[in-house]
């Protein structure tokens, strides 16, 4: 246990799990989409569904989707701000399997028409875990620079990605590989010790079999 576990995050309450964590889920979903959110469906599971309204979980998710951080004093006004910015949103309930009780599924669309589905859990103390992206199982927090590569499950892709990062002196702290079916759609999640320059990201996006490259760095 460290000091953060005892003190908790700097936040607008009332709950680090139902409010601060929910803001981070929305914020990271917006980052993963890569552009402002114009439409959002927020489906709440478990404790989020049971007590989320009282804890402001719905307002917190919208605040994150608008780009707010957990300590933003405008979180309670997020519905009004979303309306003024033209962001449509709706809330519902969903029953998910094998996830934490504080979990939400967000289905979002961006101004360019991009779509994204994220399932994420709030673990307490403002910490979160991204459990699925577009139906593919994942397991990362987004706390460090993270590269997510959606690709066809073909030989050589892992080597191409790791070699390219090596050329730019980016150290891989952890790497996880996921896929929906054997030989099908695959996702690589690489958490890194350093920020990733724009050049290798652009290079990866042009390689055969790479469907989408997403870079998540909360410090940018």
From TrEMBL:
This is L-serine deaminase. The lineage of its organism: Bacteria, Bacillati, Bacillota, Clostridia, Eubacteriales. Its cofactor is [4Fe-4S] cluster. It comes from Caproicibacter fermentans. Pathway: Carbohydrate biosynthesis; gluconeogenesis. Residues 146-220 form the ACT domain. Signal peptide: none annotated. SUPFAM superfamilies: ACT-like, Serine metabolism enzymes domain. The keyword 4Fe-4S applies. It comes from the Bacteria. It catalyses: L-serine = pyruvate + NH4(+). GO terms for molecular function: 4 iron, 4 sulfur cluster binding; L-serine ammonia-lyase activity; metal ion binding. GO terms for biological process: gluconeogenesis. Keywords: 4Fe-4S, Gluconeogenesis, Iron, Iron-sulfur, Lyase, Metal-binding. The keyword Cell inner membrane does not apply. Belongs to the iron-sulfur dependent L-serine dehydratase family.
